């Protein structure tokens, strides 16, 4: 995601002011749809703020002083510091949101299992609609179970481990080992899973468009990362985040 910049390359285009004094949000009071919206908002702002730092030629760990200890004069130090503080706050908020999302999903599935096991309320009547999750919450929880796509296969090299596993260009990744839509962290966790499982099969779930219709089919694959297959990398495919 890019951001538009004025002629002054140091001018921020996103809110990155200090957050001191602002009351922390209580994410426990948010519904599942609201948590998802908050997750997407935080990720979008983090990406924009990262672009602000990049426009200064720095990152979260770059030194703001010269080799002899003087403040650098080639960057707006106050702007960089303020942006870094905001990024730290947002990262903490993102962790809290993800924790509440996972807890909400677990609670929802536990409720479904209890309802299926009991079949009815203790007095023999059907459970009231007031005790049931909303349609939106159910759809989000079901998506967590099925694996909402979080990446697309951009290319697959012939003869690669990905090709041998049956992965195809255009496939939408729903799960990659233990990595899914809630924890992939812009595919960084996929890279970790690949590195940690070299020579061992990983279960990959994909959604694939049926050539004979506009429908999609769900496909489960066993993909084993390995070297020396004749090309670069351990997989031989390129994934792009959705």
Automatic annotation (TrEMBL):
SUPFAM superfamilies: PDZ domain-like (SSF50156). It holds the Pfam family PDZ_6. It comes from the Eukaryota. Coiled coil: none annotated. Residues 1-25, 116-146 are annotated as: Disordered. One of its GO terms (biological process) is proteasome regulatory particle assembly. GO terms for cellular component: cytoplasm; nucleus. Residues 103-210 form the PDZ domain. Residues 125-139 have a biased composition (Low complexity). Keywords: Chaperone. PANTHER family: 26S PROTEASOME NON-ATPASE REGULATORY SUBUNIT 9 (PTHR12651:SF1). Belongs to the proteasome subunit p27 family. This is Probable 26S proteasome regulatory subunit p27. It comes from Penicillium oxalicum (strain 114-2 / CGMCC 5302). The lineage of its organism: Eukaryota, Fungi, Dikarya, Ascomycota, Pezizomycotina.
């Amino acid at each position: 995601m890019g951001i538009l910049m004025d002629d002054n390359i140091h001018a921020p285009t996103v809110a990155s002011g200090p957050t001191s004094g602002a009351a922390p949000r209580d994410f426990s009071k948010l519904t599942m749809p609201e948590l998802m919206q908050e997750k997407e908002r935080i990720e979008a702002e983090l990406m924009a703020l990262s672009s602000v730092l990049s426009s200064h030629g720095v990152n979260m760990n770059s030194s703001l002083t010269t080799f002899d200890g003087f403040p650098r004069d080639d960057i707006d130090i106050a702007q960089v510091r303020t942006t870094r503080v905001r990024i730290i706050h947002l990262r903490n908020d993102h962790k809290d949101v993800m924790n509440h999302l996972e807890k909400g999903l677990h609670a929802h599935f536990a409720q479904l299992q209890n309802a299926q096991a009991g079949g009815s309320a203790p007095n023999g009547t059907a459970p009231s609609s007031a005790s049931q999750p909303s349609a939106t919450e159910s759809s989000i929880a079901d998506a967590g179970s099925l694996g909402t796509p979080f990446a697309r296969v951009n290319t697959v090299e012939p003869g690669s481990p990905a090709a041998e596993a049956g992965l195809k260009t255009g496939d939408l990744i729903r799960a990659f080992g233990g990595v899914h839509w809630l924890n992939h962290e812009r595919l960084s966790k996929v890279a970790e899973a690949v590195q940690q499982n070299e020579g061992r099969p990983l279960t990959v779930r994909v959604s694939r468009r049926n050539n004979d219709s506009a429908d999609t089919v769900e496909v489960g694959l066993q993909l084993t990362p390995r070297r020396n297959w004749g090309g670069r990398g351990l997989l031989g495919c390129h994934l792009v985040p959705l």
